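Note to self: the last two entries modelled the partners one at a time, which told us nothing about the interface. This time every component goes in together.
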Amino acid sequence: MTLEIAQPNLPKAPEPETGSPRYWGLVWKQFKKRKLNMIGLWVILILVAIAILAPLLANSEPVYVKYQDKVYLPILQKLWPISKLNLYPELTGVDLKDWKAKGAEFRYTPVPYSPDDYNLEEILEPPSIYHWLGTDQQGRDVLSRLIHGSRISLSVGLIAVGIYTLIGIFLGALAGYFGGRWDMLLSRLIEIMICFPTFFLILALVAVLGQDLFYIMLVIGLTGWTGIARLTRGEFLKLRNQDFVTACLSQGMPTRRILFRHLLPNAMAPVMVSATFGIASAILIESSLSFLGFGVRPPTPSWGELLSQAKSVIDVAWWLTTFPGMAIFLTITAFNLVGEGLRDAVDPKLKS
Amino acid sequence: MSAYLLKRLLTMIPTLFGIMLITFLIVRLAPGNPVSLKIQAAQGLKSTALSQEVTDQMLKLYGLKVDLPAGYENFIKDKPAPVRKALEWLGQNTIQFKIWLVNVCQLNFGMSFKDHRPVLEKIREALPITLTLNLLEFLIAYLISIPLGVYSALGRESAVDKGVMVLLFILYSLPTFWVAYLLLMYFASGDHLNWFPLGGLHSEGYETYPFLMKIGNLMWHLVLPVITMVYGSFAFITRFSRSTMLEVVKQDYVRTAWAKGLPRRQVIWKHAFRNSLIPQITLLGTLLPALLGGSVIIEQIFSIPGMGKLAFEAISSRDYPTIMAITTISAFLTLISLLLSDIAYAFADPRISFEEKQQA
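The predicted structure of the combined assembly is written out below.
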């Protein structure tokens, strides 16, 4: 009893260990408190849904055809894993337009245009009920290109950040845990990477390697890992002398297991925050590259590429400038919001 | 202090070497070389029909091929073909890297492949333009951001603070190239407000203007690019200044200052604000390279012939010496500014000593 009185400043309940399920539960609770965080999260979820469902949202292929009392779903033939099956052998070589003339029943996706369907009779149409967000110089539907472009943006964001998070965690963990020579080496390497003008380096590498989606992801991944590596190194440096590590060591656990099963979950919180912000900046980098003409090759739709098309018709087609920019802006804002919310929820210093 | 400085300067050597090596490798690993591109262009895209001799001569002219030492030549002569090729590549590039390294140490960055002018001369032309643009931007950004950050921090959680933060957050997430376009669309195109020029630095007949009009004309051209650059760093610096101020206000010495009964103005500006400026030095250190590096996107959109545009054009035309020079120079400047900001930090804040840092 007296002991308790002697130490009145002891915390009431021990803080859950970082990385434990209870810890993430607390983080989630904290995160939920701010409405803006949740809005950001919802925007991201909706974007992901749009990206995944893109071919079902914007496609010139009819979704549903009823002809002579038989129902066909031609769109399935355009979806990647199903397209291998050859569902409707009787449809091959049949022009669906003939069926339409014969009175078949057709249903289309909400946006009945594929991103690459050009129509030279409808170039640079302003937004209308047919083309909700207008058309570009080749008469392609802007909304359809935006929907399909979300796949490029999000996949670049997620995969590039995935690559550099892995590199950063791996190098940072080695340097932080082993210290000494590893640490020296990593510090030099980070210093070298920081000194390069990042965007210029990315631009040069993409120009050298070729404008391929994969290379863009790879290059952003290879140039962006320093932040995560520093964070992981710092966390591991803090954690490596703690009792639970000694406990692991005394059990004769292999180093790999200690590093990635026991230490890593404890260091994950700041890494997650940094990665969320990283996604926003990777998306921005990709669209900047496309904007400068160094992104994925046309006709692949990308938001930056749409904006760069608007260059030549800037005073004619406001919709070509406005909507793709909005899409980029919304996505970046959503990821930044979630990153910020996560940071506040994770950082106990700011929990006031 | 001097021991620390010496140590820092010495560690810069391997870093610089690494930077130069990576720069060299990036350029050299590129498939295809500028010579064959040039030849193709000259021949109207017929890539055949040019003797090996001419190509070799051109490669040598551009310093992309050197004579290997006779001993090495003999050594690799009777190796199997793939090994010979690899060894030849290695030999060629080691020698070329050495030549380049020595040249760079003598501040000789070679001739541009594009127009055969010395790279250094091109950089010397571009640098003042970027510097003017960025200094203007810095000045404006800091003049607005720091007071705004302090004000926002003092009224923490008030409606004004929240409003400012949301606004800054939105500004921060706006992609620059989009904003640049919107500005051009609404303020520089015939359809809307035709207030500003579409790009460039000067109007026609600039040379004949009197001095003040020259300045005015330049400023008129810089309004849109500076706005585009300012709003991003604006958000960044304000948030930083707000958070450092919040950190300082919590400190004991500020509480003491209040407790002494000092007037509010004195507590805030003399005790708190001054200390909140110290971390700004680090931020300045990270922003300094951008001051000289220029922004590829903004200079490209507004066709400002600064460093960013030079860099972009070098990449588009595979101008190896220029690419290598820009990367090396900006990396070197970044290293220097990191060092400077560390030193400045210690001067500004006597609580920091280098001896402590060495242990950490």
